[in-house]
Design brief:
Length: 289
């Protein structure tokens, strides 16, 4: 008998797929963006203290700015990791690199200010520890669904990462036009796509049926968005806009229909397995009421 993986029809799981709320707050936010300021302060206050101090301060400013950038990207990667049921750990530990660069940047800045070698090292160490305490470290292991082999989960993780990348490009491109109606329209399509993504994450067996949608079709939607935005920036073309919106309508309807089919197929599989189990128990003389 085929093995049934844990997922949407497992005990305790809701049988009604929940709508995906596509309104996402930037995981980095002000707490990461504000860390770009110290590097600027160090750079601008270094002039007039001699060439050696200036060079050290500029190195410190570069370290601190790069640390802020790594932290921002690391927080975003961690948020994406947390939002998924199946995910691979970040390939680059951005948050930990940010902590190391922050410590180095503070040490260089302190040394440029005549804190001495030992004092500068202590300042850098304290900054590194505080940075880790404030922001933590990167996820260190892959997220997996129990009962599913590693190969299948790696396939799902790769497809999901590619699908999310296509959706992010669409979002970034359409935001360039500053058209709230279009942004909402793209967001609605993204919700339909992400509902399929969650379906696949909950039961990786659905990947075979959904792979073309999450790969080829999303890539096509991304490319169509890029071309439409490029045209819209050059001139207003109501016909092109209508065609683009019609494409989103068709894609959203097809994604929704395919997701519903995946859900129905899984329910059919479950019903078949229940029937097989009932028959087996009855053959063993177990009465089911």
């Amino acid at each position: 008998m085929a093995q049934k993986f844990g997922g949407k029809y497992s005990p305790g799981q809701s049988q009604t797929p929940e709508a995906v709320d596509d309104r996402r707050v930037d995981a980095a936010g002000a707490r990461a963006n504000i860390l770009f300021i110290p590097g600027l302060i160090v750079a601008f206050t270094a002039f007039g203290n001699g060439p050696v101090a200036l060079a050290l301060a500029l190195v410190a400013a570069a370290d601190l700015t790069l640390a802020a950038w790594f932290l921002r990207e690391g927080l975003r990667a961690e948020a994406a990791y947390d939002a998924r049921k199946v995910a691979r750990k970040p390939a680059v530990p951005r948050k930990m690199l940010a902590s190391l660069l922050t410590g180095a940047g503070v040490a260089f800045a302190a040394y440029a200010g005549d804190s001495g070698l030992l004092g500068s090292a202590l300042y850098g160490l304290v900054a590194l520890v505080l940075h880790v305490a404030a922001f933590g470290i990167d996820p260190m292991k892959d997220k997996r669904v129990e009962g599913v082999d590693t190969f299948q989960q790696d396939r799902v993780a790769r497809v999901v990462e590619e699908a999310e990348a296509h959706l992010e490009v669409m979002k970034g491109q359409i935001e360039v036009l500053r058209d709230r109606k279009l942004e909402n329209r793209v967001s609605a399509f993204q919700s339909a796509a992400r509902r399929m993504i969650r379906t696949v994450e909950e039961d990786p067996r659905d990947l075979t049926g959904a792979r073309k949608y999450l790969g080829v079709y999303l890539m096509g939607a991304r490319d169509a968005t890029v071309k439409f935005v490029d045209l819209a920036q050059r001139k207003s073309d109501p016909e092109a806009r209508a065609s683009y919106e019609a494409l989103l309508d068709d894609l959203e309807q097809n994604f929704a229909a395919k997701t519903e089919k995946l859900l129905r197929d899984d329910r059919s599989d479950m019903d078949i397995e229940i029937k097989v189990l009932r028959d087996r128990l009855q053959r063993e003389g177990v009465s089911l009421k």
